[in-house]
Write a sequence for this structure.
């Protein structure tokens, strides 16, 4: 079966959506299907990869986004490409500018799935849209999305809530997974830890895109609050984005180290495994792969109570209000738990999320037989 997937807001080097698309593609291939991914980029390309065929179409960069691009120009060209590919199913990871593809699929009798990777109401909140406008706009857009596609896939109950509230009946929940081999407690190495923290210092790690919706400033404020309380905490930040310069200014005088984008995921796993606590302060995360990768490494996570992450981390982490002081309290509470117990609990929680299970869930959403899959 040929599954043509379309996605916007895919960073060229990193990001949770990029990871999900890669692992789902590998799983579809392993299950005997033919995945084709269409994404925007700086220039046209068409290549075969370990996760299937990837077609890149030129798309404009979103101003101030730090690299996000959109498939919003050349709808006629994209329509011709879809017609030429003749998919058996389509899977779309953008419910705004690509919603029209649901109509394209219905007109041609092609089964369609929309994957909701974000909370529209949550994003509108981050963008400062007044509640009086936010709720009505989100409801209208979500109703149109639900009508446009055969199935809507949400990765958490939190993400599904804005659809369930509207009585949407073509909704399914399918959690994403984590690479349990790459991200593993065995990667904990005292020599690696010594590069970032000395002696009894508390090593806090924040791993995400440095953009406004992720609230990375809370990570800096967490270390400030910890040190004010007399805790010798240090922070290592993995990732890059439009907030990088502002974060550097905010962190002046604090033991904060910015690593930028780290291409080697094994190096990221090494760092996550060596951390005492990872912080994930984004308030509109609908799943949070970086937090799950930390758990897989045996490291507990403090997450934003307003996001879907409390649902993902369970009792292996701790939910806090989105302030540095609240996150610092969360760090201290996690550190009060015996280390062996908190690390074992983190790993055990991550093991409930595998990519083979995620792939099978997505294939069921497509209404096709499932089989073995890998990432």
């Amino acid at each position: 079966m040929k599954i043509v997937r379309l996605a916007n807001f895919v960073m060229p080097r990193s990001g949770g959506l990029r990871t999900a698309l890669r692992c789902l593609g590998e799983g579809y291939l392993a299950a005997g299907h033919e995945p084709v991914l269409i994404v925007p980029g700086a220039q046209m390309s068409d290549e075969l990869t370990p996760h299937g065929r990837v077609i890149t179409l030129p798309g404009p960069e979103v101003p101030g986004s730090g690299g996000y691009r959109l498939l919003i120009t050349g709808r006629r060209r994209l329509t011709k490409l879809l017609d030429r590919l003749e998919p058996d199913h389509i899977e779309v990871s953008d419910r705004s500018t690509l919603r029209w593809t649901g109509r394209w699929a219905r007109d041609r009798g092609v089964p369609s799935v929309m994957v909701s990777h974000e909370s529209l109401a949550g994003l509108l909140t981050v963008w400062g849209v007044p509640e009086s406008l936010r709720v009505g706009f989100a409801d209208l857009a979500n109703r149109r999305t639900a009508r446009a596609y055969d199935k809507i896939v949400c990765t958490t109950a939190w993400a599904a809530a804005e659809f369930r509230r509207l009585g949407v009946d073509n909704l399914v929940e399918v959690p994403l997974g984590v690479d349990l081999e790459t991200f593993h407690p065995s990667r904990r190495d005292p020599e690696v830890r010594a590069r970032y923290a000395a002696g009894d210092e508390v090593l806090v790690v924040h791993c995400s895109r440095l953009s406004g919706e992720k609230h990375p400033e809370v990570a800096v404020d967490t270390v400030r609050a910890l040190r004010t309380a007399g805790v010798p905490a240090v922070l290592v930040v993995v990732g890059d984005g439009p907030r990088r310069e502002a974060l550097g200014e905010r962190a002046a005088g604090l033991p904060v180290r910015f690593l930028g984008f780290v291409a080697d995921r094994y190096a990221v796993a090494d760092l996550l495994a060596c951390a005492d606590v990872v912080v994930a302060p984004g308030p509109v995360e609908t799943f949070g792969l970086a937090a799950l990768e930390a758990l897989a490494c045996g490291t507990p996570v403090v997450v934003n109570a307003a996001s879907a992450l409390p649902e993902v981390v369970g009792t292996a982490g701790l939910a806090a209000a989105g302030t540095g002081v609240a996150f610092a309290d969360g760090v201290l509470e996690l550190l009060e738990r015996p280390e062996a117990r908190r690390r074992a609990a983190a790993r055990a929680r991550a093991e409930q999320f595998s990519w083979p299970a995620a792939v099978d869930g997505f294939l069921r959403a497509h209404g096709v037989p499932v089989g073995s899959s890998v990432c």
User: Anything to note?
Assistant: The chain has two domains: 2-177+354-366, 185-350.
